[in-house]
Design brief:
One of its GO terms (biological process) is tRNA wobble adenosine to inosine editing. This is tRNA-specific adenosine deaminase. The protein has eight helices and five strands, in the order ααααββααβαββα. The protein has about 200 residues and is of the alpha/beta class. Strand 3, helix 7 and strand 4 form a beta-alpha-beta unit. The N and C termini lie far apart (about 80 Å). About 30% of the residues are buried. It binds zinc ion. The site of zinc ion has 6 residues, from helix 7.
């Protein structure tokens, strides 16, 4: 009988049951399940450690500001910010027309500025915020720069290279993939682009 009762638990569940309840204090912010007793809740795995850190809307707000500045220069309104800890290392917007440079996307502008400022071709402790899903070129540059986390705004099903099209970070030839968090201030980002292209058409 003892053997039968033990067999109801998977090994990881048993491991969890052996752990003292006070070791699960970090899970206290998990939303309670209806009808669940405290003792049940304490036995659930601590999901907090697996969940991504909260995105920082303030940095995306700055990326949005860069996108607006780009629009004012008659550039496609996409903005990017590179952050290390709480410090903004670089920020920039699209400059392809201004520079006559098809590679001067906001991400590339920001990566170049950050690398120059830090005196390093790699930015392993840095996170990049950009208002639009990066294209394949920018995804590659993000990978080469060893950016730690990518936060992007609007999805770009037609030109994106992260969750659309080439899905660059999922390819076996990609040697560094950042953690990716999408759909951050996506509505504002998309509105900026829509407004810009509508104005150009009229
Ligand atoms: Zn790009």
């Amino acid at each position: 009988m003892v053997k039968g009762s033990v067999a109801r638990f998977a090994p990881e569940e048993l491991e969890r049951l052996r752990r003292p309840a006070n070791g699960l204090a970090g899970g206290s912010t998990a939303s309670p399940v209806k009808g669940e007793r405290d003792s049940d809740r304490a036995m659930r795995p601590d999901r907090q450690t697996k969940e991504p850190p909260l995105p920082r809307p303030t940095f995306m707000d700055i990326a949005l500001e860069e996108a607006r500045l780009a629009a004012a220069r008659n550039e496609t309104p996409v903005g990017a910010v590179i952050v290390r800890g709480d410090e903004i290392i670089a920020r920039g917007g699209n400059e392809t027309r201004q520079r006559n440079d098809p590679t001067a996307h906001a991400e590339i502008v920001a990566i170049r500025a950050a690398a120059a400022r830090l005196g390093s071709e790699r930015l392993p402790d840095c996170d990049l915020y950009v208002t639009l899903e990066p294209c394949a070129m920018c995804a590659a540059a993000i990978s080469f720069a060893r950016i730690r986390r990518l936060y992007y705004g609007a999805a770009d099903p037609k030109g994106g290279g992260v969750d659309a099209g080439p899905r660059f970070f999922s390819q076996p030839t990609c040697h560094h993939a950042p953690e990716v968090y999408s759909d951050i201030a996506a509505r504002e980002s998309a509105e900026l682009l829509r407004g810009f292209f509508q104005a150009r058409r009229s």
